[in-house]
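Extended Data, panel c. Modelled sequence:
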Amino acid sequence: MQQLINTALGGLTQGMVFAAFALALVLIWRSTRIVNFAQAPMAMVTTFVALVVIEQGYSYWLAFAAALLSGLLLGAFLERVVVRPVEGKSEINAVILTLALFIVLHAGAAVVFGNSYRSFPAPFGIRGFEVGDRTIALTGFGVFRIVSVLVVMALLVALFRYTDLGLRMRAAAFNPEVARLLGVRVGRMMTIGWALASVVGSLAGLLIAGGNLVHPGYMDSVVVYGFVAAVLGGLDSPLGAVVGGLVLGLSLAFVSGYVGGQLVALAALLILMVVLTLRPGGLFSATAERRV
């Protein structure tokens, strides 16, 4: 029973890590219709910005704010300078460009920050809570992860469903020509979409790094599972990203705990295949309506 509870709690926490990254992918997809493969190294760079601030003797929360601000600026800069020239052209151009950014940011971070492993602190305890005479696999930082992801999900739902900005961002992403005719500044919406997605990605990077060792490739193992979580839930749904992350996290935790850690990657592939076979658009995809 103790193992079952700890496995479930471990899967819950890990699933929220996948969900945090998936939310960044959902945000940039909904606002720009681009799958950003550079999301992980962008988050890694901002996490190292936070680490530099901490190593200079400043508080974790100042570093937290610095990471989010640097993410905002980095996302806006990359959209305006790197991605903007290929917008409006073939969709594959932007995808290839983000793959190139993945490589460039990795290499640049290794040059600037080095390749050595460095410890990243956590703002809350990383020791499991004690219930009676037992310690469960849920930490203070794990609770912080869960709350942070749920808050971001709620904010994204509110942004796209209840705000004029969210409506303009979606209009600019779905049909830029018509949006321009309606007075939407499409270029500005694209910049805002990249900037906000980079902020959410920066948060994901901080949640993954807390209490662990970081290096330029520390997010690589999470990237694939984050993409899988986003696709499972449906790239258009913030709620789907969280549910996809939880389904994936819990499933992989039970596979690792009861079957074998070497089968985790295979289990993720099988889950993805089953969901895409039964529901190609993801668990929370909506039926597209066409009008003529």
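The two ends are 58 Å apart (CA to CA). This feature is highlighted in the accompanying rendering.
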